[in-house]
Amino acid sequence: MRGIGGSALTADIAVPEQGGAGIPVTYVPARNTIMLALALGWAEVLGANDIFCGVNAVDYSGYPDCRPKFIAAFERLANLATKAGVEGASLRIHAPLIRMSKADIVRDGIRLGVNFTATVSCYQADATGRACGHCDACHLRAQGFAAAGVDDPTRYRR
Length: 158
Fold this sequence. Notes:
The protein is elongated and about 55 Å long. The protein folds into two domains: 26-100; 102-158, no CATH class. A two-stranded parallel sheet has the order 1-2. It is built from five helices and two strands, in the order αβααβαα. It has 158 residues and is mainly α. The model has no long low-confidence stretch (mean pLDDT 85).
């Protein structure tokens, strides 16, 4: 996505410590559209009717491609733009985390045995996976663990 640029995550634009009003500079243009399009092509080749993605619209930074409206529109597109969809093999886009709070996601992850020490949400994680502790993603993650009553296992640089 660096070739497209336009985002603090894909270009030389500073990552803010706190999100501001409007769509933040960490929004990557069309990222979920591109990822879902690739998944859609692969799903059609495999004969799969279900695509899953981890977008979240509750405790998130305001990205337009993390909203239920986007997921519903992409599903309609998938069924209009593919041989499988036109021939009646209904394609579904699933976003099981979309309406969950970060605390609910943490609780479900614990229930499912997710090793959260092997995950990172940071916009500026270093090469060893240590989080900055200051960006919007770090704040949202920490708040989710706190609200879930679970110790945050994130490795922070500072």
